[in-house]
Amino acid sequence: MKKFNIAVIPGDGIGPEVIDEGIKVLNKAAEMDTSFQFSFTYFPWGCEFYLKNGKMMDPDAIQQLQEFDAIYLGAIGFPGVPDHISLRDLLLNIRKNFDQYVNLRPVKLLKGAPSPLISIANENIDMLFIRENSEGEYAGEGNWLYKGKSHEVVLQNSVFSRKGTERIIRMAFETAKKEGRSLTSISKANALNYSMVFWDEIFEEVKSEYPEVETSSLLVDAAAMLMVKDPKRFEVVVTSNLFGDILTDLGAAIAGGIGLAAGANINPERKYPSMFEPVHGSAPDIAGKDISNPLASIWSASQMLDFFGYKKYAQAAIDAIETLLLEGQILTPDMNGTSSTSEVGDRIVSIMERMISHSY
Ligand code: NAD
Ligand code: IPM
Ligand code: MN
Asked: Which residues form the Isopropylmalate dehydrogenase-like domain (predicted)?
């Protein structure tokens, strides 16, 4: 029996609520298959921990996490702790230290999901965003000069290394090739005359090695417009850290809402643990009301099952989400339903159980 040790960081706001439901899905998969099981170890890190201890995580958090097969995270950030401290010290710190340089974010419209674009898209929204996740605009370097003076200047540097840029673009080409889908690179070389010129050059270089992959290159402003106007044209998409952050919230909006958007932070070499988390944040406005949508967190759990090689259960979780959306009965208020977070999670596992035992 294979045992996967998972570090769970429920985090802040709605994080713990949605994580509970994803864990139900992981446990259901393990319960239905005698070949593997999960063991979960919880870490109380986040904003409350910070207010008590002056730190977002234990000082040796990275060493502690290194021992696990994966990390499952809810959300971080809460009023009372500045966002640039809470997010940089915890979430971005883990992504960076574990070289989780691939951020995989599916933007896939399931049947029954509410999309404002349903008539344009003809239900055909199926993108895979591959966001650079280790450097770029998130490098965290800069300078704050002449603070408080009238000639105050702030510099926020981006870092695009050849290694970092090439590996994410190559990963995107490999994915597009394997899936037989087109690849779109999104950049902004008309204004960003170093970083994005470099990005585009590397994209062209790597492209010459993949003649079988159909490609296009778009400027990020036009890409945002086209994601709404003609979402079908996007299949595999590769872009920088910041552009990927922004465009995947847009992607969430057109593919059923932020409550459905999932993400995986992958270290492809598997030297370090990968981390699975919803795209959304801690949603302080609805925290503690038991109305947060757990589907994004459940979809991230499906990405974890897929990462471990259990495609059957990963797909069962997605199919269960689709069935739930088509039934339209048990949904949280963000999807115009009246159900609670845990009612949605319970329904998902019962659909999964039925699917796995009958039709798979
Ligand atoms: P948010 O994603 O938390 O919320 C945006 C809006 O979407 C809110 O109206 C919220 O109620 C709604 N929403 C989000 N997730 C939902 C869900 N599962 N079900 C129903 N509604 C949902 O973004 P924000 O308000 O910009 O940020 C809040 C905090 O979260 C900030 O501290 C921010 O830095 C942090 N944040 C953390 C992460 C992360 O941990 N991965 C991601 C994004 C934002
Ligand atoms: C995300 C989040 C994070 C990011 C924030 C909270 C630092 O918005 O995962 O999309 O920008 O990467
Ligand atoms: Mn984001």
From this structure: 5-348
